User: Fold this.
Amino acid sequence: MITHRPAGSGHPYLVTTDQRWPVHPVAGEPLRLGVRASADVGEVVAEITVTAPGGAVTTRSEPLTRIEPTRTEGAAEPDGHLAAAQERLAGSGGGWVLETTAPEAGTTLAYLFIGTTDAGRMQRTRAFSTGVAAWQPAPDDVVTAVGTRRVIPGSVSVLTDGQVTTRVRFALPLAEGEHVTGFGERFDTLDQRGSVLDCVVFEQYKSQGAARKTYLPMPFAHVVGGDGWGFHVRTTRRTWFDIGHSVADQIVVEAEVGPEAPGVEVVFYDGSPREVLDAFVGETGRPEELPDWVFRLWASGNEWNTQAEVLRQMDLHREHDVPVGSVVIEAWSDESTFTAFRDAQYAVTEDGAPHRLADFTFPADGAWPDPKGMVDDLHERDIRVLLWQIPLLKARPHPTGQAKADREAAVRENVLIREPDARGGLRPYRNRGWWFPLSTMPDLTDERAARWWTEKRRYLVEEVGIDGFKTDGGEHAWGSELVYLDGRRGDEANNTFAVAYAKAYGDLLRSAGKAPVTFSRAGFTGTGAHGAVWAGDENSTWEAFRWSMFAGLSAAASGILYWGWDIAGFSGPLPTAELYLRATAASTFVPIMQYHSEFNHHRTPLRDRTPWNVAAETGDERVLAVFRGFAQLRERLVPYLAASARETVRTSVPLMRPVYFDHPSFEGAWSHPFQWFLGADLFVSPVVAEGEAEHEVALPPGEWVDAFRGERVSGGVVLRRTVEIDEVPVYVRAEAWEAMAPVFGR
Assistant:
């Protein structure tokens, strides 16, 4: 058996063995054609027909070369259940390939593959066809400008085969001394000048800073310095940015385009970073104020998979005098429907209709003997409860019971994203990623489908009393050929899925009279209007700590108000005591303060990121007391954070914001990038390096008071200071010190 998929798996960064690459061949450039074949195939040839622009036809037969399986790009070490899943995918990929050169532009390239088995049997694929494109100069008006036009005249070109245009390229000016920042949540750096990046929603499991990939991209940027301006490429398709890398004084932009609009629109904003961001979120969606409790400590551990364990952990918070405001329960469900608590007993609704709480019986010896009683207990303790979600209908193991009924109902009710089948029709899209493979996917961009999906979770909110959802895994839509219910293809709609996912759950919560508290990993333009965001999966390393701080600052610059990360990372061996406490110190001064740990098969030593477990496993007696001090400080900060968030909603000025928002000409904003303002009156400069004996603070202009030491300091200078393990360099504006001093125990 031999197979060929022209567009491969749709993985945005991986060329699969069985695809054509590039999918849209470019004249004179390398072209690769490949197949996967069963082990008994000993020879594969490609029969190629080339129709030149003038109509001349030539044919040829070329042999393919066998290649061995290769490791998936970015595959992680097998260190946890998610890493193991990624590692399994990494083992696939062997097959046959032909390396050739694409013919002249305007050519039509038709081909098929013939394989011969060791027994002499011949196998054929169907015929495939594609045009060959080239970059051609295009009129400047192919790029429509809204606002002050900054497109360099004559820089516009299009990638076209004479019939279909697939990309537009253009350049923007980049003056000496200008910095370019934003682009959604970016882990690698604050100033992107000199780099090349793209915007496509992608699940990069760990090491996002090294891989330079992100769950939450936006084709939006600030250009800071000079007069100050920004831009937004108004598209949901994939974009690429060369930011002074190839041409020092230009930002070169490429954007995918569709047949309905072979051009692209760019919005230009003039002014300071505050003015640019206000204009951008005014267009794409302003944040909605969330309740004050979101600013308290969030606690989570993937191995807290029973009611008894959740209550035990909350008891330990009380015992150790560590205040906690929310618990996120990830491993609560049957891991099949993701609507029913594990061990719950109930009758299957064959039509896929929602259940109510009265439909369930919870065995006394089950994992969750009384979910509502547990939630009521936690509410009495002033602790809110969020449940984990995934936007998929699982296919492995083969669904039975309610999962089977739901899967069949989803097809019958036509609420799924679809993909082309081999007969020219459509079938439900099956997840091509390494996590929950072959699962089907509800089209949450469609209001009817979203309601069908969320109604099955309504009893959790209205009857059990759940306060929010961790809306994980919004990155599973791969492939430009996917078909959404409104007719859009995947190239246009895939990036929007994560935004719609958070919105759908927010709408459910709001309809039940609750605040729309969602906690999402993935997103795109518009995500800032829907709940909170966390920075995703990361190891417990100093490098990952720094990457996460970059992520928070770039997300804030792109309109994300409620942002957090897993304190000191959630995966792998426990962090050292020093890393854990320095990360806790920094996290006390970001919008969402939460710790979380990955599933580790309940092996010992435990990998819970609770302060008592980190203290026990590291043997460092300081851990619990220092964490307690920061958690209690965070409690005292809640009124300030809540008031500051309301101001952000009103003005668009970020709560956690890079220094250039207030001082765009201050060099310290770029030379010391791990610093930020928090609200109007706090400046934060955390320790982010191991064993740092002396810490540098690039203190912005103004008069300040050291929050932990009470000393008055003049800004506009670089300070060198020591930082004790129970401190974080935080400075309060002098005029606000009288009001803020009690918060810091002064």
Q: What stands out?
A: Residues 622-651 form the longest helix (30 residues).
